[in-house]
Amino acid sequence: MMHKLKYFLREAFKGLWRHGFMSLLTVTTIFIVLFLVGLFLLVGINIRFSVESLSQSLEIRLVLKGDPTPQEIQRVYDKILSLDGVKEAKFVSRGEGLRRLAKEIGREDLLNLLKTNPLPDVFEIKVKKAADIDNIVSVVNNWKEVQEVIYGKEAARKLLAIQRLLLYGGGVLALILLASALLVIFNTIRLVVYARREEIEIMKLVGATHWFIRLPFLFEGVILGGLGGGFAAAALFFVYKEALKFVLANFPFIPLIGDMRFLYELCGFIALGGLLIGLGGGLFAVQRLLGKVAVE
Amino acid sequence: MISFNMVTKIYPHNIISLRDITVNIEKGEFVFLIGPTGSGKTTFLRLIYREIKPTRGSVYVMGENLAKMKERKIPFLRRQIGFVFQDFKLLPYKTVYENIAFALEVIGYNPAEINARVNEILERVGLSHRKDLLPYQLSGGERQRVAIARALVNDPPILLADEPTGNLDFEAAKNILDLLVEANLHGTTVLVATHNREIVNSLRKRVIALKDGVLVRDDKEGTYDAQA
Asked: pTM higher than 0.80 for the full model?
């Protein structure tokens, strides 16, 4: 058993070395394809993250009618929290509003100047997603306690449009990328297959079983795919870390995901993808060969 | 050992390669399979190592009906058969030694046994001093001797040779033939497809002649051309 395993590994490494150019071509192809896929995922996930953070800063201001009692205020507060898509709600009394205004314009004596407070009581509502804003607004508009609803209609619309673009555009782009990746890998495998026909023909001739022929190819596939995927994962890790540093230093207002767990997961996923592509490619290649190569 | 029973082989597009062939080859025989190009010699051999199945009729090798043989058993059939081809079919990047050892590695011999067997067969074909060379460094005759060594290293009961002397001059061809005869003396059943007249005539072995896929002659101590 051991000398068989040794034989398979030796043949796999010899095969890789002998077909050095092909091996390099395969590793490079898998590296480039997976690096691009990973980059696309990184950018996509981060844009999504930014849009989500922006949506969360969108605010609906609910202006209450007249002079509500604390019970009325509490009732409105409970109603707001029971709505779908509400992240948080905060009551800003007219006194609090005036203090904020005074601070903003730098006149602490504003109340004395005005004699009476002209501001209304207000609820500030934060939403989970930009898409929820329209729904929430249409519901609260009908409440009898509400005088007016103020929100960034235009901003909400634009954010929604961006999210849709990301979803559909991103989906189409991802499909195109995936299709071209498969095409490139498929063609690389065809080249490799062509270069190895003779070897397989002779193996069949001298009575090697199909599994005996397959295994060195599978080992080769896993080694090549693992290398391509591993390099891609390492490159992505490095690129993202540097990008994060650069953005934080120069554009701190751009929200990037700083939690490294997502990066570890993504890189692991890319490396695993390489292994699987290698294994699948090797299996596919040798299957074609076993089927097609006839002993003549 | 090898038995054809009313065997017909028709390739796609209705190309008839063999027609109603019935023939028996006994254990230990030495047989020449002769006939012009396209007469069906190669098809005859391919049927024996189960690269193809007959369209009609049955082929038995060592008691097994090949038409009913399962795919996964084919490698084990081929371990019983040595092959020699006109174009040698050696792996160009393996040395003489490695090319022969390869045949034993793929069927799972252990390294010590491989070493012993390869050195012994190299001795037998007279190539011990060439064992570390690559095929391109050898003459045509030497390459064919490597191919024969590979075919025999496993001591197969059957040896098939398809135009083994096709690319060689008479001297080299004679040398190859001597090795085939020697294998036959060791008990191997040998079947040689050829259209080399001198070689067939020099040995006076059984001759099976094909023409347009039909068996036209089966002589016990035959010559290349039909005798009057």
From this structure: no
